[in-house]
Design a protein that fits this description.
By secondary structure, the chain is of the alpha/beta class. It has 11 helices and 13 strands. It has 2 domains: 14-55 and 121-313, Alpha-Beta Barrel (TIM Barrel), CATH 3.20.20; 58-115, Alpha-Beta Plaits, CATH 3.30.70.20.
Amino acid sequence: MGRVEPKKKAPPARGVIFDIKRFAVHDGPGIRTTVFLKGCPLHCLWCHNPESVDCGLELITRSSRCSRCYACLKVCARGAISKGRNGGPVVLDRAKCDFCGLCAEACMYEALEIVGRRASVPDIVAEVEKDRIFYEQSGGGVTLSGGEPLAQPEFSLALLQAFRAGGIHTTLDTSGLAAWNVLDRVAAAADLILYDLKIMDEAGHIKFTGVSNAPILKNLCNLAGLDKPIHVRIPLAAGVNDDETNIRAMIDFLRPLPAVRRVDLLKYHKGGQEKYRNLGQELCFRIFTPPSEERMEEIRRAFAGAGFSVTIGG
């Protein structure tokens, strides 16, 4: 009888993240650690995390920090960096960059930085475990955000399962744009869902996010049928989705969903503008106006009057 080879242990799931934020207090209950994953199927014109949209590594440049030492030129084997005109800050040819990171290591002034890093589930769990005492004292835990965690479904699922196995409260922050079987599997490993809702009119949703809202709304209805608490988050920009028609349509849509009893109103800010510039994507960013304090309060009262618990954030 031949020898039976033992099954090889599967390597740990790996993914790409771009940040880990500790002591977060707006991404679920208590004090939390938020893990931001890269990759998003939406292209919202107001996105304040443009570095989260592309699923791969990216290089950002901060011209204001460039000292003109040109140390980065010496280590770039692909010739992707050149001196600026008339001795100005360095110029990046993004088509030539292979994201090796040597230029960022050579820059003493953080004028160049690689955004995104590949990590395994044990890597992330080890970092999150450092803050366990704060979760236990505050009723907090870990939140997966992005980007869109569902753009890396196997990695997200493995992370949530690992946190749960360690007794850590888990939250999934999602746009809801994914195949239902993907959302269903990943959401099953989360204790709480933070679900983005932006615009009810499909044409308006396509105009401002680049995608239809039909699967997002359908997935929310399906998700609300499960035994899982859902907080709906609504980013609000004046002239985009703060009008009475959109707010009333949201209330009418959400009211029959028993799992949705809390709504978080998020006021638009233009914090992503500098990031777009650093990524060489200035033309992709649109500047909007935040709703007035009075309008935010009117919207809060409308949702509260419909029976929702409502918070207002920045």
